[in-house]
Design brief:
Chain A has three helices and five strands, in the order βααββαββ. By secondary structure, chain A is α+β, with helices and mostly antiparallel strands. Chain A is globular, with a radius of gyration of 15 Å. Chain B has four helices and seven strands. Classes of the chains: A alpha+beta, B alpha/beta. The interface between A and B is medium-sized, with 31 and 29 residues.
């Protein structure tokens, strides 16, 4: 393991952008990541943090989101946790198509699953682990 | 400021999105377009040339904006999506909902 660190944020959406910049800066400090790799990490983080703050913690600024990051030679593993009751991630079933085209919500997990190499949830559904490439 | 608004010579409101369009700022973009609609604007170009990433909240905001502009009898185009953003639109099939130009100049010329 090359690096590991942890951030804790109150559920304030205005903090998401800076958190992404901090995490991506540290993950890609060696300067070797492709633009595609950076895009994947930043987008997945935006999705996971937004979900945790808005849906997991109900937008309550007194509730925190914890991000744990582990970096090795080839990959980055993120764990994003909220203080909510969890949700049934298996029940989310967005599929892009004519019926869902004008939906204004519901694409988040679909996007995460397509950008990440691997996605897992804890049993309660309030922690998501995402594996992404480092380069 | 993540959003800058300018008016083109052919009367198009151009909103340039700097950095990212995500859960934290998507309401601001919706409000910018709504305020312009309320002021009589009907033609919009959203320029993503300096945009690095868009999350699903941002995509949802674009869908909402598209609907509002359409209901007002207006026209909305997107421009300047980089390769990664274009692939996101294709993944979610939103490339079939929006009119997308490679560059802002091409988008403006198409009105």
């Amino acid at each position: 393991m090359q690096d590991a660190f942890r951030l804790e944020l109150p559920s304030e959406l205005a903090r998401v952008g800076d958190a992404i910049a901090t995490i991506s800066g540290r993950c890609f400090a060696d300067g070797l990541a492709s633009p595609r790799t950076r895009f994947r990490l930043c987008t997945v983080l935006a999705e996971a943090l937004g979900n945790a703050m808005l849906y997991g913690n109900g937008g309550d600024p007194n509730r925190c989101v914890t991000i744990e990051v582990a970096i090795d030679d080839d990959r980055i593993i993120l764990a994003v946790s909220d203080q909510g009751d969890g949700f049934d991630h298996a029940a989310t079933s967005f599929q892009p198509g004519d019926d869902s085209l004008e939906a204004t919500r519901g694409r988040g997990l679909f996007v995460i699953r397509h950008l990440a190499d691997h996605v897992e949830f804890n049993e309660r559904g309030n922690t998501i682990w995402v594996t992404l490439p480092r380069h | 400021m993540p959003f800058t608004v300018t008016e083109s010579g052919n009367g198009v409101s151009v909103v340039t999105v700097d950095g990212q369009l995500i859960v934290a700022n998507r309401q601001e973009l919706k409000q910018i377009v709504q305020d312009a609609l309320d002021g009589g604007a009907r033609r919009f170009l959203l320029d993503f040339t300096p945009t690095a990433y868009i999350d699903s909240s941002g995509l949802g905001a674009l869908v909402s904006i598209s609907k509002r502009v359409r209901e007002a009898g207006g026209e909305l185009r997107l421009a300047g999506l980089n390769e990664d953003l274009r692939s996101l639109f294709e993944l979610t099939k939103l490339d079939t909902l929006f009119t997308i130009s490679d560059t802002a100049a091409e988008g403006l010329a198409a009105f």
